[in-house]
Amino acid sequence: MSLGLWLPGQVLRGLLLCLCVGRWAEAGKVLVVPMEGSHWLSMREAVRELHARGHQAVVLSPEVNMHIKAEDFFTMKTYAIPYTQDEFDYIVTGKTHLLFERIHFLTLFLETMASLKNVSLVFQRSCEQLFYTKDLIRHLNASSFDVVLTDPVYPCGAVLAKYLSIPAVFFLRSIPCDLDIEGTACPNPFSYVPRLLTMNSDHMTFFQRVKNVLYPLTLKYICQVSFTPYARIASDLLHREVSLVDIFGSASIWLFRGDFVMDYPRPIMPNMVFIGGINCANRKPLSRVCIDFSLNLGGVCAAAAGGRRRSGPSGPRSPAPRRSMGRSAAEQAAAPVAGLGQRKSPPGGSGMAACRT
To answer: Which of 35, 78, 109, 244 lies in disulfide reach of 39, CB 3.0 to 4.6 Å?
Structure first.
């Protein structure tokens, strides 16, 4: 079985935004601001495919990180942060063992919150250090990037796109506290859209709906710690009051690594594209072992790992066709971005006008 990642070609067009039509389709410049950890491992394959199609990708990362390393299919730009590699690794991953220990819930909660504060502070200072590196910011501003590809779980990329007035594409699974819903101005009815950690379905009793309303309130503290500092950073840069909703609302396209096979149905907006399966391994067809029996038993065909088995004189039958994960998502991704590249952002604009039709 192959473990190679299969990346739908048409989904990649959604990442190009203003490069999809006309003369810009020849080659584009993409500034990538990834989130650390497994978030980057998913985004890396998209960047690889962008390079294969002739586009220039520049990945922006702090010098000290876990997985974001230089590779031959993108140019890497780094900046210094006030942490050593050992300090970074300890703060980010040093408390993961708590998830596997049997301790009191209150102790686990307090330890987790303390660890969350430390991790959030690391990424916050990393973002601040990026904007303090004036030479790098001037270089990025002069490079005339066509689009910023970023994971909004780390809002620094969204702040940078807003500061440089470049259209942004968000590549994500979700954002806590329904910030993705607020950023897209999408309806979010509590009556049938289950909230995170509630274990509710989309058919709820009255008390389950009450629970659905109350549970998100407990996450507000987490978002206050993790995301609020980026609103302050954006306000200082733009010299005006900027909220988190303003930051996330500046995205031109939202590429969600999910679909309604795994998630409950909910309202969506035209610039929300679901690409579930984009980072799933593509399996080769299963091999079949066919054994011919005598004594008038006909043929028996057994497909390894769950294929159909057919006995009788009619002979072997092929395994049932399997759905190719991500292909339907690729077809859906092409539609909303087909006409997005026909005009660029006006000077000083946020880039939204260039990509909304």
So the answer is: 35
* H or E element at residue 313: none
Q: How far apart are CA 163 and CA 137, in angstroms?
A: 10
DSSP-derived 3-state class of residue 169 = strand
CB 194 within 8 A of CB 204: yes
Structure-token pair, residue 30? 């993409």
Place of tokens 């859906």: 332
The two three-digit tokens of residue 52, written as one number: 């294969």
Say how far apart CA 83 and CA 73 lie, in whole Å. 27
Q: Could you list the pLDDT tens digit for every one of the 357 residues in the chain? A: 443 444 555 555 555 554 554 444 567 899 999 998 888 888 998 898 889 988 999 999 999 998 899 999 999 999 999 999 999 888 888 777 776 777 777 787 788 788 888 899 999 999 999 999 999 999 999 999 999 999 999 999 999 999 999 999 999 988 888 888 889 998 888 888 888 778 888 889 999 999 888 888 877 877 888 899 999 999 999 999 999 999 999 899 999 988 888 888 888 999 999 888 776 766 666 565 544 444 444 544 444 344 444 444 444 433 333 334 444 443 344 333 333 433 343 333 333 333 333
- Assigned CATH topology for domain 9-283+324-349: Rossmann fold (3.40.50)
- Tokens at 143, concatenated: 């490079």
Q: What are phi and psi of 85, to 5 degrees?
A: -65, -40
pTM: 0.72
Token readout for 322 is 């399997």
Q: Residue 342 has which token pair?
A: 């026909």
Domain chopping of the chain, boundaries: 9-283+324-349, 289-321
Side chain identity, residue 202:
D
